[in-house]
Amino acid sequence: MMNHSQVVNEDPIGTGVHRQCFVLIECPPPWKANEFTSKAVPENLRLFEEEFYEIQPNGILLFIHNEKLRHEGLTRILIFTPVSGFTQGYAKQEIHVPRLEDVATVLKNWLAGEDVGGTEINPHVRDILICTHGAVDKRCGKCGIPFFRQANAVVADLGVESVRVWQSSHFGGHRFAPTVLDVPQCRYYAWLDASSFAAILTYNGDINCLQDIYRGWAILPYPAQAMERELIFQDGWEWFNYKVACRIVEQSEDECFHRIELSAVIADDSIKCYQADVVTGETLIKNDDGTKLEPIPKYTVSNLIQVK
């Protein structure tokens, strides 16, 4: 059954939340609404949550789990930090520790700027996070858990290499369930099914499917995410291989108007540069308990031109 967001045809673009870092911790469910109070979480990690957000208020700590990927005596920590300038997304660091009790120490050292090293893995591994955190919002449990199983089946059927699919704690946008975060690029997707998931896994198929499922790229400001989607429609799946840089050329005082420049390093190492105007308006969506309508940003792109 569709939720109100789908009924009113909300455009999900521009909801890819920018984070200064994504920190993923392998921890088995069940997860409470505040996952750090869950049974499996050791006391030192529970206490670390507050310290983390004091130092990284624009970061996020997430729990991940896949029973088939678990190994006795191994807990994974995945850290993603944004790459400035021309980029394909976030830089990845993966650290393996023997126990969940060891995670807080490693992350404290990392927050303090120490070199915590990393574990040698295939640098091209792609991690797909599916929110299944039903204690935060029942839609993520009801839609996310079946889709997690379906997504693993799609990966197996396609024979896609170097892809890990994880259950994840809440990363925002539960009205888009099943919602996905694709790292290390850190792109968000909404309302996925087997067909659309196969398309974003393989960067193949009808590019127009992104009109309804693409929430945006975390590396970009919200209005620029709307502009980027138009360039994806123009360049096709090849866009996902480009390194991109963003510049705000002009914006109104109320930040409802932006002129944005996106530049991309393409396959032959030349640079294409585009500008567009993006206007931010509003659409009304029912809140979580369905008792009232709340304004949600809506982005309109115009005057898209290539300037170089």
User: From the structure provided, what is the oligomeric state, counting identical versus distinct chains?
Assistant: single chain
**Major sheet: order of its strands?**
4-3-1-2-6-5-7-8-9
Task: Provide the β-strand percentage band.
Answer: 25-35%
> Per the principal axes of the C-alpha atoms, what is the gross shape?
globular
CA(first)-CA(last) distance:
46 Å
- What is the ordering of alpha helices and beta strands? HEHEEEHEHEEEHHEHEEEE
The number of helical segments is: 7
Overall strand count: 13
Helix content: 10-25%
Radius of gyration, CA atoms, in whole angstroms: 19 Å
Pairing-aware structural class of the strands and helices? alpha+beta
**Averaged pLDDT:** 94
Largest beta-sheet characterization: 9 strands, mixed
Low-confidence stretches: none
Description of the structure:
There is one protein chain. With 308 residues, this protein is α+β, with helices and mostly antiparallel strands. The chain is built from seven helices and 13 strands. It has helices at residues 4-7, 43-55, 103-111, 138-158, 194-202, 210-213, 222-235, and strands spanning 21-26, 59-65, 75-82, 90-97, 126-131, 163-168, 180-183, 187-189, 214-217, 243-251, 257-265, 271-286, 293-306. Strands 4-3-1-2-6-5-7-8-9 form a nine-stranded mixed sheet.
